[in-house]
Amino acid sequence: MTASPQFEDGIVLARDTFAQLDRRGSKWRTRNVPAYIREQLWLPYYIAEQSGERQLYIIRSPNDQNPKVHFARWPPPEPE
Prior knowledge:
This protein is an alpha+beta fold and 80 residues long. The chain contains three helices and three strands; from the N terminus they run αααβββ.
């Protein structure tokens, strides 16, 4: 399956982020990556389908709003 043009930038970003996270040690991962992501979703991105629409979710590093590794929808929502 080829990625749609709207997903290409997100996939590149996800792969770069994943490479950085994957280089971290196991102790850091245990503290900062939720168990279900470590054990089931340790990958750069996934595509889900909801109501017939494909949605890209990319792995993200911890930040102020999310203190653990998490997945976020791509493209990010536009600020209101």
